[in-house]
Design goal:
Blueprint: H1 3-17, H2 24-31, H3 35-45, H4 53-64, H5 69-76, H6 79-91, H7 99-112, E1 123-127, H8 139-142, H9 149-153, E2 159-163, H10 177-190, H11 197-212, H12 217-221, H13 234-248, H14 253-270, H15 273-285, H16 319-369
Antiparallel strand pairs: 1-2
Protein name: Hyccin PI4KA lipid kinase complex subunit 1
Main location: membrane
Organism: Cavia porcellus (Guinea pig)
Length: 370
């Protein structure tokens, strides 16, 4: 770490301590524009033995619990890098050097699982129904949906998935580690639209590193530092895929594509069905070419909306068309029956004529013989 970068971090640490409370909103708004400070903080986090790491983690926690939205997002942007540093140190069995990072992660977790009154939060998510339109699809584009009796009985009903309440944690252990880290990634994904490009790049890089360290693909990616395998859970990988999916469409196509391949590779090795399902669904929905970089402006996932029309189609089925179709069918069948009857009559008449002609010839032969 250079002297100039160290000076930037030390100035940032001392500036916040002397800041009056009335100037906090203005300070929080201008903080995101300090790119040199952000890059210097990343270098501090990446050096577990740095003496600045402990005061930096303490100040980031003060930002998070201040209640100021911009300060909270400033801390969240470093969350992927903090998770990677903690997992890397834990894989090397050097837990004592990650004490301040572990305290910061636990502090953010314990703040997020309760509301402002101190009560446990219960997160809920309503699963959308394909029978109702959304920004992602229209029921008319799916095709005909048969209105069976079971479908009618479930019409209007929605399924809600709940998460929580989550217990408070005083320390990270092998049993609760990924429960806490998965919830932290969930909080990070909830604020993805506010994360800068450097944070999305960090997310893609740490996802690749976590998934390939200790496996043959690590030599292909040429990752150095950690050579032992880092255990992951299925839910944690699904949260990683959520962030990667957003990064794909928001200026980080190459890094996100590589991370998606690495997560799929690890999910296949672990035989995890949930991340495999999500990863394959993301791959199936990707366009053939690379997305254009969209690092400025509104961040969103691009979808195509089927145009709607208020006019009735010429081929639309109405009650009058059904009646007309029924009349034509009955009229046609009646005509067919009449044609078949007339043909039968002609056939019978012809047969009768032939038999009568044979009878007359036989009668003449008998008369002549007499």
């Amino acid at each position: 770490m250079f002297t100039s970068e160290r000076g930037v971090v030390e100035e940032w640490l001392s500036e916040f301590k002397t800041l009056p409370e009335t100037s906090l909103p203005h300070y929080a708004t201008n903080l995101k524009d300090k790119s040199s400070l952000v890059s210097s903080l990343y270098k501090v986090i990446q050096e577990p033995q740095s003496e600045l790491l402990e005061p930096v983690c303490h100040q980031l926690f003060e930002f998070y619990r201040s209640g100021e939205e911009h300060l909270l997002r400033f801390t969240l942007q470093f969350l992927p890098e903090l998770i990677w540093c903690y997992l890397a140190v834990s894989a090397n069995r050097n837990v004592h050097s990650s004490g301040c990072i572990e305290a910061l992660l636990l502090g953010v977790y314990n703040l997020e699982i309760v509301d402002k009154q101190g009560h446990s939060k219960v997160l809920s998510f309503t699963i959308p129904s394909l029978s109702k339109p959304s920004v992602y699809h229209e029921p008319s584009s799916i095709g005909s949906m048969a209105l069976t009796e079971s479908a009618l009985s479930q019409h209007g009903l929605s399924k809600v998935v709940y998460s929580g309440p989550h217990p408070q944690r005083e320390m990270l252990t092998a049993q609760n580690r990924f429960e806490v880290l998965t919830f932290l990634l969930l909080c990070y994904n909830a604020a993805l639209t506010y994360m800068p490009s450097v944070s999305l790049q960090s997310l893609c890089q740490i996802c690749s590193r976590i998934c390939v360290c200790g496996y043959p693909r690590q030599h292909v990616r040429k990752y150095k530092g950690v050579s032992s395998r880092i255990p992951v859970s299925s839910g944690f990988m699904v949260q990683m895929l959520t962030g990667i999916y957003f990064a794909l469409y928001n200026g980080e196509w190459d890094l996100a594509q590589k991370a998606l391949d690495d997560i799929t590779y690890r999910a296949q090795l672990e035989l995890y069905p949930e991340p495999l399902l999500v990863a394959n669904a993301i791959k199936a929905s990707l366009p053939h070419g690379a997305m254009k970089s969209n690092k400025e402006g509104t961040r969103c996932i691009q979808v195509e909306i089927t145009p709607t029309s208020s006019r009735i189609s010429r081929n639309a089925v109405t009650s009058m068309s059904i009646r007309g179709h029924r009349w034509k069918r009955h009229g046609g069948s009646k005509g067919c029956r009449q044609n078949r009857f007339s043909n039968d009559v002609d056939t019978v008449s012809c047969c009768n004529f032939q038999s009568r002609f044979k009878y007359d010839l036989n009668f003449q032969k008998i008369v002549f013989k007499i």
